[in-house]
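Email to the structure team, subject: Amidase domain-containing protein model.

Hi all, the expression group asked for a predicted structure before they design truncation constructs. Nothing fancy, just the tokens so they can compare against earlier work. One-line instruction: predict Amidase domain-containing protein, return tokens.
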Amino acid sequence: MSTLLFDPLTTTTVELQQRLVSGKLNSVQIIETYLTQIDAHNPALNAFISIAPRDGLRSIAAALDAERAAGSLRGHFHGIPIVLKDSIMTASELGMPTTAGSFALVQAKCKKNAPLVEKLIDAGLIILGKANLTEFCGLKTSAMMPG
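Reply from the structure team: attached below.
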């Protein structure tokens, strides 16, 4: 882990933001660190149901770094990655399906982002991927129960 610029298991968002502000770290480096961590552990953990296309992540991070260098910040979390639950709708152009954990929705396409996702993007957060979850978030109602 000595080659990493920060520990992705213990570094907080506030610490990342402080390092971005001080120039000790940039968003591209943060993305690369998290992708390295995901590559090392996700196959075994199956924590991510999908990861945004890497080239797109790098482009978004570089654009946010350029905005920061120009003195333009979108918010306190400008350039910080975030992971969404797979039940939160993301538009097809983000490169991640919204399946709610169901194989039945793997090919489904969303035309637009959920309002929450738009607010996150507008605030400068980077949607890194979608977290795995039980099918339909484990939704069970009395109407679905036998008896």
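The CA atoms of residues 89 and 137 lie 14 Å apart. The chain is about 35% helix and 10% strand. Ping us if the truncation boundaries need rechecking.
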